From TrEMBL:
It comes from Diaphorobacter ruginosibacter. Belongs to the YjdM family. Residues 2-26 form the Protein YjdM N-terminal domain. This is Alkylphosphonate utilization protein. The lineage of its organism: Bacteria, Pseudomonadati, Pseudomonadota, Betaproteobacteria, Burkholderiales. Residues 40-107 form the Protein YjdM C-terminal domain. InterPro entries: YjdM (IPR004624), YjdM_C (IPR013988), YjdM_N (IPR013987). NCBIfam families: phnA. It comes from the Bacteria.
Amino acid sequence: MPQCQSEFVYADGALLICPECAHEWSAEAVPEASEPETVVKDAVGNVLQNGDAVTVIKDLKIKGSSQVVKVGTKVRNIKLIDGDHDIDCRIDGIGNMQLKSAYVKKA
């Protein structure tokens, strides 16, 4: 089925046609498999999820600043994002930043 989920889809020979979006597809077509979700793991292999609390396991220098995120810093309510730095969070006293999951441990 097309993503529009139109109720006006009709068959024309071996094809199904949507008059609303003009999408055509084979009546025998297998639905495409959706891309599997990426699994983000911490430094010791625990699976992380949005809203988890983590602890920093290494002193992390903040680029462009003289501040350092100290080992043992607890970070609550993380948000997983795509990219090299896969955790978006807010650290008390520092503010919003992104961390790599390789430098945190699930609390």
